[in-house]
Write a structure and sequence with these properties.
Helix content: 40-55%
Shape: globular
Keywords: ATP-binding, Cytoplasm, Glyoxylate bypass, Hydrolase, Kinase, Nucleotide-binding, Protein phosphatase, Serine/threonine-protein kinase, Transferase, Tricarboxylic acid cycle
Catalytic activity: L-seryl-[isocitrate dehydrogenase] + ATP = O-phospho-L-seryl-[isocitrate dehydrogenase] + ADP + H(+)
Largest sheet: 7 strands, antiparallel
Subcellular location: Cytoplasm
Organism: Simplicispira suum
Structural class: alpha+beta
Radius of gyration: 26 Å
Distance between the termini: 76 Å
Family: Belongs to the AceK family.
Strand content: 15-25%
Number of helices: 21
């Protein structure tokens, strides 16, 4: 059939209003991201953290603004479906020369589904797949910055080239000793290039914007020599005299994976072409999904869009079934997974045992707190979805029965789209990276036996890093609440990460107390708590019996983290945070720091 002509002025005007709504969103998003440079230069760490929190809300605010405008000016919700077909086609036309077309398509989806009151999984008027290619998309404007710059040093000019690269970012704060910093970087680089012949194509490529997060700015790029490409990042920090210095040199995919971890806060990056940044970053970390890279850049809605597309693609090319996730079942969250897919799905139960004094709204508030907070590499990021549809035949019956028992309000089984196939629709869902629960990881070591050297090392590493995880959380003003091993997981690279958020609190809201001395024999022999406990009271001395029942675990824990069982540790951190101190939590090991390495 010959294509229908686009004849409706309203359709064009609605499409243009939607694009204008997106352009306003990205303009504000980019402006806030660009201000991170000034906040870094002036060491305004509290404002940097505030901006990181508030920027997360930008997207939903702009979607609501756009919906209100469309309803007011065009009565958009009352327009016929034929007009919405035209709206989409006009919108595609408006994105032909656009610099963020993939983000604009996702914005269209968000606005359209709110106006048409449909889930975006059953909507013919949205971008289920991208319509516009972002390949080779670049800023061709005369004064526009390219995505990355290329430098071609020789061995003799390498130091000067690195100085030139640092100067190109125009930081309005001087380096304490740029010569020493560059010498450290060259020394680290030469240790990787030792006896390697520099080929004709030897070059350094660096992204044109620094990556800002918390108290650091990160220069990100790669070194190309012959057929080899080496990703690298240079963390730039302030010293005690408010001058800049390069703290470390990170090399290789694993180092970059840690820097861009799903358990860390989002970066502030000034990007004209975000898809080009993602493409460059994927050349550094080919195993990291594009969805996680968009998340890391603060573009979480685009990350959600890509994640769901990846999930649908995986469902199409797999046959295993969704099941109740292995491990100890939670009291508040019902968790299930697909064995072949590296994520878990969590929904809030309708009913909680008496000891869990909470509500659905409180739990959602805790997850939002984590989303907006600095996760310091120790709290898993979550993707939050509403009205998620799964094929019914991909569910084990046991899992359906579990949801019907514990979360019936969140479950619908129907054929909404009328294609003759039943679907399971979950009304509200969190999705997280799958990790090995720490209690199961420790049990693996115990089962192998402590006489096995590898099992002993596995146990020691995980217990030590468990304590380090808690200390990192404390530095970020987070008290985990429930500190049991089962609420922590072990990532692919062996890092311990917290993932159960229904009891977290700010350290500054907690009251850390010693257990009172019993006043008589009856209180001393009582199996019940005989002293008064108020909300937010925490007794660190009581952690031991719940955590350290295994003698081998206790010995390692007490050797490295005995301070966690004392009030002094918690109270001193609380007082420093209340006094305005912002702790450093680095996305790399202390031994990688130049100052530490050369001191050693």
């Amino acid at each position: 059939m010959f294509p229908q002509r686009l004849e409706s002025p309203d359709a064009y005007n609605i499409a243009k209003a939607m694009r204008d709504g997106f352009d306003r969103h990205y303009r504000l998003f980019r402006t806030e991201s660009a201000r991170a440079k000034h906040r870094f230069e002036t060491a305004d760490w509290h404002d940097q953290q505030r901006a990181q929190r508030e920027r997360i809300e930008f997207y939903d605010l702009r979607v609501k603004e756009c919906v209100r405008r469309l309803e007011k000016e065009f009565a958009a919700g009352k327009q016929p479906m034929e007009l919405w077909h035209e709206v989409k086609l006009h919108y595609i036309g408006l994105l032909v020369e656009h610099h963020q077309p993939e983000l604009a398509e996702t914005f269209f989806n968000s606005v359209t589904t709110k106006i048409l009151h449909r889930t975006h999984f059953h909507n013919n008027f949205i971008f289920v797949r991208p319509a516009m290619s972002t390949e080779y998309l670049e800023n061709d404007e005369f004064e526009g910055r390219p995505t990355y710059y290329s430098y071609y040093p020789s061995k003799d000019s390498l130091r000067q080239t690195l100085v030139t690269i640092l100067e190109s970012y125009g930081l309005q704060r001087e380096f304490a000793d740029v010569t020493t910093d560059v010498n450290h970087v060259v020394h680290a680089l030469e240790s990787r290039l030792h006896k390697v012949k520099l080929r004709a194509n030897f070059q350094i490529q660096v992204l044109s914007s620094l990556f800002y997060r918390n108290k650091g700015a990160y220069l990100v790029g790669k070194i190309i020599n012959g057929f080899n490409e080496v990703p690298f990042a240079l963390p730039i920090l302030h010293n005690e005299h408010r001058k800049l210095f390069i703290d470390a040199a990170l090399f290789g995919e694993d180092d970059l994976q840690m820097l861009f971890s799903f358990a860390r806060a989002y970066f502030m990056v000034d990007m004209e072409i975000p898809s080009a940044y993602v493409q460059f970053l994927r050349s550094l970390m080919p195993r990291k999904p594009r969805a996680e890279l968009y998340n890391a850049l603060g573009l979480a809605k685009q990350g959600k869009t890509l994640f769901y597309r990846d999930f649908l693609y995986h469902l199409k090319h797999s046959t295993d079934k969704l099941r109740i996730a292995p491990g100890i079942k939670g009291m508040v969250m019902l968790v299930f997974d697909l064995p072949s897919f590296p994520f878990v799905f969590k929904l809030i139960k309708d009913y909680y045992p008496p000891q869990k004094d909470t509500t659905r709204e409180k739990i959602q508030g805790k997850y939002l707190l984590v989303k907006q907070h600095d996760r310091v590499g120790r709290m898993a990021d979550t993707l939050e979805y509403s009205l998620v549809a799964f094929p019914r035949d991909r569910f084990e019956d046991e899992l359906i029965a579990e949801i019907e028992k514990f979360a019936p309000s969140q479950l619908e089984i129907s054929d909404r789209d009328g294609d003759g196939k039943q679907e399971v629709i979950i009304k509200h869902l969190y999705i997280e990276r799958r990790m090995i629960p720490l209690n199961m990881y420790l049990q693996e070591a115990f089962d192998a036996g402590m006489q096995d050297e590898r099992a002993q090392q596995q146990m020691e590493r995980s217990v030590i890093d468990y304590g380090n995880a808690i200390k990192d959380l404390v530095a970020a003003n987070i008290f985990p609440g429930d500190m049991l091993w089962k609420n922590f997981g072990v990532t692919r690279n062996g890092k311990v990460v917290f993932y159960d958020y229904d009891e977290i609190e700010y350290i500054t809201d907690c009251n850390f107390r010693r257990v009172p001395e019993p006043r008589n024999e009856e209180e001393e022999m009582s199996g019940e708590i005989w002293y008064t406990v108020h909300a937010h009271d925490v007794f660190p001395e009581t952690f031991g019996p719940f955590l350290l029942g295994n003698d081998a675990v206790r010995e390692v824990f007490m050797r490295h983290h005995a301070d966690l069982l004392g009030v002094e540790f918690w109270q001193s951190h609380k007082e420093r945070i209340l006094a305005g101190h912002v702790y450093d939590v680095f996305p790399y090991e202390a031994k990688r720091r130049f100052g530490q390495a050369y001191a050693d």
